[in-house]
Amino acid sequence: MKVMVVVMAMVLWILFFFTTPSYSYLYSREGLHGFEDLNLTELVYSSRMLPTSTGSNALPPPLMIPLTLIQGAAAKGAVCLDGTLPGYHLHPGYGSGANSWLIQLEGGGWCNSIRNCVYRKTTRRGSSTYMEKKLPFTGILSSKAEENPDFFNWNRVKLRYCDGASFSGDGQHEASKLNFRGQRIWLAGMEDLMSKGMSRATEALLSGCSAGGLASILHCDEFRELFPATTKVKCLSDAGFFLDAIDVSGGRTLRNMFEGVVRLQLQASLAPPSADPHGSWHDCKSNHAHCSASQIQYLQDFRNQMLNAIKSFSMSKKNGLFINSCFAHCQSERQDTWFADDSPLIESKGIAQSVGDWYFDRVRANAVDCPYPCDSTCHNLVFK
Which keywords, in A-to-Z order, does the entry hold (predicted)? Predict the structure, then answer.
């Protein structure tokens, strides 16, 4: 099935939307975040993402949604790396959104070796035993119209990620007691949600960030096939487009990373420690303001490679993109970047409005920011 894509992206980090005549797909990627640790951990909620003020002007806390384990999944072999049940967080829709469904595939990197996967199964990215029992729904999952105007009253779901291969593997390693069952987890999750009302959806949006953004690309066609032709179905990939780019040492870290993932069960970085043994990129990766002129040029070259990679589909009027110059990751999940008074903008339009325009076919979403680091509206990540 042909995929029609709308792309929302950052210059270094990219966000795409993809669409077909029958459905659509949004993609976003932190194209050059270059942080190896993001493949093993996840973006932690920052003070800007969750309200912390007190007193009369205090913001209400985000909605906390409990974890639901998928009963019966084990009988289908749909289990996490350690054999525990997979799960999701669901907040029911209402009113005009009662029959509209938004599925968010959780991200969290990959494991590409037995050693990495054995470690991972002792974390929330490999076992439901360690998963948070409740998660805050912010950004595109928010239940507040003022924070999420187009999707606040939809049925909103976060499918937890515990297979280490973007919901795509199907194998096992008996000696290490590892289960690579991402594809089965995906199928079990969709089957369970279909039984809970998603089969009656008139509108559906599959989304995800980072490893979850890649998963939304991989499963977009399958998602479309769950519904009748009359259902409006689109897919959104936030920070899930990973280029086979040359890293700062002249090597192919990303290619090697994914070769390991594919070999094992089925670290995205331009400047991983393995390619930067002397740490010359350390300060630049921790704070973009510390990048040298040559490092900025390297980032600009990567930006150009990213733009060339999406050029063909971006020419179609049915596709779109939002590429901003922000040192950031997973902008659809964070409230401050998704929809707030000071959210990142391209030509006075933010991410949430662009996604809504794209999904509801209001106007074409096709925005490319000026070269990095020109954008003063960015919420740049700075690691201390």
Answer: Cell wall, Cell wall biogenesis/degradation, Hydrolase, Secreted
Angstrom distance (rounded) from CA 106 to CA 384: 25
Residue 232's pLDDT band, with cuts at 50, 70 and 90, is: very high
How far, in Å, CA of 212 to CA of 105, rounded?
Answer: 5
Alpha-helical runs (H) found in 174-238: 182-195, 211-218, 220-225
Position 7 scores a pLDDT of 39
Among residues 263, 275, 303, 323, the alpha carbon closest in space to that of 36 is found at 275
The residue ranges of DSSP E strands in 225-275, in sequence order, are 232-238
Strands 23-29 and 232-238: parallel
pLDDT per position as a tens digit, 66-94: 999 999 999 999 999 999 999 999 999 99
C-alpha distances in Å from residue 312, one per residue of 38, 154, 158, 307, 364: 29, 33, 31, 10, 16
Please answer whether residues 92 and 141 qualify as being in contact, where contact means their C-beta atoms are separated by less than 8 angstroms: no
Average pLDDT, the chain: 84
Asked which of 105-114, 195-204, 214-223, 235-244 is least confident by mean pLDDT, the reply is 235-244
| Sign, Cα dihedral of 160, 162, 167, 172 | negative
Structure tokens at 230: 């009359």
> CA 29, 238, 314: angle at the middle one, nearest 5?
70
Model confidence, pTM: 0.84
Residues 379 and 223: their CA atoms lie apart, in Å, by 32
Reply yes or no on whether the pLDDT at 316 is more than 80.
no
Domain positions in the chain: 3-15+63-368
Q: Give the Cα separation of 175 and 163 in Å (integer).
A: 17
* Alpha carbons 38 and 44: distance in angstroms, whole number: 10
Q: Among candidates 9, 10, 27, 30, which has minimal Cα distance to 19?
A: 27
Please write the tens of the pLDDT for every residue from 324-333.
888 888 899 9
DSSP helix/strand/coil, 225: helix
CA dist., res. 105 & res. 207, Å (int): 6
Residue showing tokens 């002397």:
278
Give dist(CA 185, CA 88) in Å, integer: 11
End-to-end Cα, the chain, rounded Å: 45
- SS3 call for 350: strand
User: Do residues 64 and 91 lie in contact, with contact meaning Cβ atoms separated by under 8 Å?
Assistant: no
